[in-house]
Amino acid sequence: MSALLEFDDLHYTFPGSAIPALRGASLSIASGQRIALLGRNGAGKSTLLLHANGILRPAAGQVRLDGAPLEYTRRGLLRVRRQVGLVFQNPDDQLFSASVLQDISFGPMNLGLSIADVRRRVAEAADLCGISNLLDRPTHALSGGQKSLVALAGVLAMAPRILLVDETTSGLDPWMRHQIFAIFDRLVEQGVTVLLATHDLTVARQWVDTVVVMHEGRVVASAPPVQVFADPDLRALVGPALL
Predict the structure, then answer these.
(1) pLDDT of residue 144
(2) Backbone angles phi, psi at 89, to 5 degrees
(3) What is the value of pTM for the model shown?
(4) Could you give the CA distance from residue 103 to residue 95 in angstroms, rounded to a whole number?
(5) I want to staple 208 with a disulfide (CB 3.0 to 4.6 A). Which of 29, 36, 168, 235 is the partner?
(6) DSSP tally for the chain: helices H, then strands E
């Protein structure tokens, strides 16, 4: 299976920090996969995701999309952000427009699409996320679960081939979690890869095809769940509940 997105030996240290966040992280992602990204706090999960669409630029190493290195120009970043969508852990970090309609429209508008195409994408994303009735609502008046769905819809309106989700399901009630995973399943059926950075080990065991484990800024495993959870050394890196 050919790689869609590749992280090749990435190194990165945040400004003002003496401790590298990534220390040679490498990972290959193919189309149509369900992936859980596991690791303790500080393992590098969020930092890796921020490199996927050029929000961060590695000090060394390379990010590739369809085999081509990511270019950190306006044109290059637009290319990767059309195909690699990132949903932040806190939806308030992602929502900034006055209304739900404006927020979901923002990405497609920046692609230079026609008004008709923007409206179509917004309608499809809102319908998929079950928030068509919220389009006229102000974003500040939404509940936490509604904000998560609007943030997800804003990314899906870009029609990404890879959806990267940073712990967005944490703190949601069971009904909302079920709704979001139903959306993820529909996306995977359409060939989209969904990668979820999570501490939810039930999701990692039961929902995904591949578990990726990070430790101290490196990817130390990428394998089916049964293989990862059968390894006591890897179990020790993803949570004491499995020891």
Answers:
(1) 84
(2) -60, -45
(3) 0.91
(4) 7
(5) 36
(6) 9, 10
